[in-house]
């Protein structure tokens, strides 16, 4: 089969790999029909994530058709169209029983924090991902769901991570009616977080980024006010001015490890790898939220130390809520919103690229060329 293969930072190829095999009775093999490049894939592409091994295949956003099932699989049959959440989880451990699928205790021997994630380094379990013609799906009776009739394939694809994560980010903010919500980052997850904030009762939504085309999309898709942080002297001061000098009620960090805005932080994190991520957006969130406010973090950070202003967070009495999204937990409500016409996730897709040209897709997304916001990888039928 053809698969995207990692060969080192900024180096990926499409190569021949063996079609994965059933390794456990509850495995399924899925023939991928759509995949996507996620903003967090860029952390791998840029060499930010520890233990990203040469030969790995990325991709944690994908849908497909069941090609083969293990002997104990009961919920899926060959030929089923399925969407697969980016989390790999057992469904029975202490954490899964609490709905914390992203923290499953049984699927990742390499970490005590995060569970398993498709195509996201050996730090997240060492599972190959879906930027390939076929992918092994462990615990197939637990994670995948059959795509409902009438749901567009690309909407289903975006539910596997970007939409579910953005919605979860708004959930973590504990938004109450009338709240002012600020979202740092106008990538796909930030767009979905901003749009979801309205569904949860926000009275005002402000999106902050430094790329005008992404801010324009936030106005169009998320109905948000926008601020380009490069066009103001002090983004925290600007937020205070716009919120009666109190700060926002809720701030969502949808940026994560490679935030721009502070050269020293960016170099020590992104270039020298001395931090688990540049905490610029998170520190702006701490300074820009009101006392007693809530910060939601679902932008991805690595496991290393980051220079976060925790003293300020403590003294302001902030609530900080974080996690990788338990994607499947969001699906029932998201399906209702899509069916009601409140959301059309595929509206954020800007590029569709065949698997054979995936290296160009990564370059476009990484360099922010051609107005690239969300890239879908297509496969021949």
Write a brief structural summary.
The chain has 381 residues and is of the alpha/beta class. The protein contains 12 helices and 17 strands. It has helices spanning 39-45, 94-97, 153-159, 162-172, 188-199, 212-221, 235-241, 263-271, 280-288, 310-315, 327-339, 358-367, and strands at 2-8, 11-16, 28-37, 62-69, 81-84, 87-88, 116-117, 134-137, 145-146, 180-184, 204-209, 225-228, 248-253, 289-297, 319-322, 351-354, 375-378.
Question: What does this entry look like structurally?
Answer:
With 381 residues, the chain is an alpha/beta fold. It has twelve helices and 17 strands. The strands form four sheets. Strands 3, 4, 5, 8, 9, 16 and 17 form a seven-stranded mixed beta sheet that branches. A six-stranded parallel beta sheet has the order 12-11-10-13-14-15, sandwiched between helices. Strand 11 (204-209), helix 6 and strand 12 (225-228) form a beta-alpha-beta unit. Helix 4 (162-172) packs across helix 5 and helix 4 packs across helix 11. It is globular and about 60 Å long.
